[in-house]
Design a protein that fits this description.
GMP Synthetase, Chain A, domain 3, 462 residues, 25 strands, 5 helices, mainly beta, Thrombin, subunit H, six-stranded antiparallel β-barrel
Length: 462
């Protein structure tokens, strides 16, 4: 806690103990803790500031009405302030739109709204008798703590003109702004006018589109407590997007609500000074009901009144607004990011055959031939030679069938000295044939000739 906060904490109980007495004095409209001003210049000294509609010389003020120089050791200061509610009303016959009379397809904060009905008023409350319609600002979207219903937040004095009742229909834009385009969006559900809050909530019709955002400012982040020196902004129906600075959270003010309501005192209000480097004024009639937000888009208050010169604007602390109306400001929540499942590209694999061959190896066709034995002097019946195609893995040379013994069938020598030809004899299958020297010599010569011929073929293919 800094030195100014400590000083405020010391002054606060003194201010609260005397403020009702001060407000009862003639011309007093507000009491606050603020810097004392002397000859139009701030002194840097915190004091109890008494706001009056019009300053008068001490000689013209009755003794019992004078503001003491100090109270319980705390200095006082008197400053001028003329306060007015920031709603607007126009005679039905004189309806003319002011600034933002847009009919928005989706409800959100910072846009025109008002009751569907008109109210018959007479002087001195109004300049001329007639039916009047009212306009203010839809501040933000809220959620009912009891039912979970979605509602629109605004001020009591915007939604509840004389003769109001629960169930009154509300329109956007208001009848003041654009009567032909005004569309009903919901019904008045609750309202409160207390020492802390001037508020009302409207339940949205089924299927009505809305968003947790404020026109121009953006999505609502949540809520926060106002602090001295906090930069703030608001978006309202009349002055639209404006900027200011919180100067106090201890402001007590008495305002005449007129009609059957009369004067009411609201305590511990937020007092905001217009940032004239960015805005001509922070609020004007028609901006009532706007929410006041910090630069991080957290809502800190509900705007309800201001000074006629545009220097000051006043708001209810948002925590009190929520508690007394039984609602919560709806903050924007980003929709979940939906991602598509990652689908891997199919991986093409190659079967590596025979030393990383890029295409299947095709064996050269193996040419085979039936070997026909040379005619032998003795009839020989060869068993059929069964051959098979050799499917090679890494064939380095043509397949050569291994030499086979060719049985000489149906031939038997009864004696080594017998004369040829010897008639064929049947032997058991698989027995070796008997033959003479001449027959053997011819047979061996035939085998040699075959081997020579096959070797020549092999050399030609290689």
């Amino acid at each position: 806690m800094d030195a100014q906060q400590e000083t405020r904490a010391l002054i606060r109980p003194v201010k609260e103990s005397i403020e009702d007495d001060l407000l009862a004095r003639e011309g007093v409209v507000g009491v606050d803790i603020a810097e004392k001003v002397s000859d139009g210049k701030p002194t840097g000294q915190l004091s109890i500031v008494v706001f009056v509609q019009k300053k008068k010389p001490g000689a013209r003020i009755a003794r019992g009405q004078l503001i003491p120089k100090e109270i319980d050791g705390v200095p006082t200061d008197v400053q001028e302030l003329e306060i007015e509610l920031q709603s607007a009303m126009v005679k039905l016959d004189d309806v003319v739109g002011l600034v933002d009379a847009t009919a928005y397809p989706s409800l959100h904060g910072g846009i025109s709204m008002g009751p569907r009905r008109s109210v018959y008023l007479t002087p001195p409350e109004v300049p001329a008798a007639g039916n009047y319609v009212f306009v203010g600002t839809l501040g933000a979207m809220v959620r009912d703590r009891a039912s979970g219903a979605t509602m629109a937040l605004t001020n009591f004095h915007v939604a509840c003109p004389r003769g109001w009742a629960v169930g009154d229909r509300m329109a956007q834009p208001s009848l003041v702004d654009n009567a032909p385009a005004a569309t009903d969006f919901g019904s008045l559900t609750r309202s409160v006018l207390s020492e802390n809050v001037d508020g009302a909530v409207v339940t949205l019709d089924a299927g009505k589109a809305w968003s947790a955002s404020i026109e121009t400012i953006g999505n609502v982040a949540g809520t926060a407590a106002a602090t001295i020196g906090m930069p703030v902004q608001k978006r309202g129906r009349t002055t639209e997007h404006t900027f200011g600075t919180v100067r106090s959270t201890d402001f007590t003010v008495t305002i005449n609500y007129g009609g059957d309501v009369g004067s009411r005192t609201l305590r511990n209000q937020v007092r905001i000074e217009t940032d004239t480097t960015r805005s001509a004024r922070f609020s004007q009639k028609g901006d009532s009901g706007s929410v006041i937000v910090a630069d991080d888009r957290n809502v800190i208050g509900l705007l309800f009144a201001g000074s006629t010169d545009g220097q000051w604007t006043f708001g209810n602390p948002i925590a009190a607004v929520q508690d007394e109306l039984g609602v919560d400001i709806i903050r924007y929540e980003a929709p979940p990011i939906i991602t598509r499942p990652s689908v891997c590209d199919p991986i093409r694999t190659a079967v590596i055959v025979c030393n990383k061959v890029t295409r299947p190896a095709l064996c050269e066709p193996i040419q085979t031939r039936v070997v026909i034995c040379n005619k032998i002097t003795q009839p020989a019946v060869c068993e059929p030679i069964q051959t098979r195609v050799v499917i090679c893995n890494k064939i380095t040379q043509p397949a050569v069938c291994r030499p086979t013994r060719i049985p000489i069938c149906d031939l038997q020598l009864t004696s080594a000295a017998c004369d040829f030809p010897i008639p064929p004899q049947e032997n058991p299958f698989g027995d070796e044939a008997a033959y003479g020297e001449e027959f053997l010599a011819g047979y061996l010569a035939a085998l040699e000739a075959v081997a020579t011929e096959e070797a020549a073929d092999s050399d030609g293919q290689g």
